[in-house]
């Protein structure tokens, strides 16, 4: 740290995401993710990767993400005027909780809306995914 200068991590991350191109922001996100994973491994398992390993894993994660985007651009075009939805459900059986997440994008790929949900019940995978689908349909109707 330079004397008299402090770094606010939230501001730094926002700066990277808003001012840098998608590749740089993606690499930064992957690096942050693997630093966090390495920290968790140290805390919970007393294992730790070297900085070089963390950097290599982060780069590989970013490269896989980048490659998948290139393939997706070629094969996953949404028709004009249509929307694309993504859903997922999480299950916490011991707590009796089911969570849902959903995201809506316009046909040009532009982000439109997203939400998360929490239900105080344990359900099957099929029911949880169905709940997520219902959530995203309601969200799309509300936001369109």
> How many strands in all?
3
Secondary-structure element pattern, one letter each: HHHEEEH
Q: Could you list the spans in which at least 5 consecutive residues all have pLDDT below 50?
A: none
Strand order of the largest sheet: 1-2-3
Shape: globular
Q: Tell me the fraction of residues in β-strands, as a range.
A: 15-25%
Measured as a percent range, the helix fraction is 40-55%
What's the alpha carbon Rg, rounded to whole Å? Answer: 19 Å
Number of domains: 2
Average predicted confidence as pLDDT: 85
Specify the structural class.
alpha+beta
User: Major sheet: size, sense and barrel closure?
Assistant: 3 strands, antiparallel
Number of helices: 4
Distance from first to last alpha carbon: 47 Å
């Amino acid at each position: 740290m330079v004397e008299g200068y402090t770094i606010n991590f939230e501001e730094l991350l926002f700066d990277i995401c808003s001012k840098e191109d998608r590749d740089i922001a993606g690499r930064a996100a992957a690096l942050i993710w693997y630093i966090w994973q390495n920290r968790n491994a140290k805390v919970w398992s007393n294992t730790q990767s070297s900085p070089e390993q963390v950097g290599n894993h982060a780069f590989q994660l970013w490269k896989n993400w980048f490659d998948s985007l290139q393939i997706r651009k070629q094969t996953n075009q949404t028709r004009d005027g249509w929307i694309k939805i993504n859903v997922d459900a999480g299950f916490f059986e011991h707590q009796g909780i089911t969570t849902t997440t959903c995201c809506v994008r316009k046909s040009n790929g532009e982000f439109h809306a997203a939400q998360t949900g929490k239900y105080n019940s344990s359900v099957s995978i099929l029911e949880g995914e169905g709940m997520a689908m219902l959530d995203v349909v309601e969200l799309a109707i509300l936001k369109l």
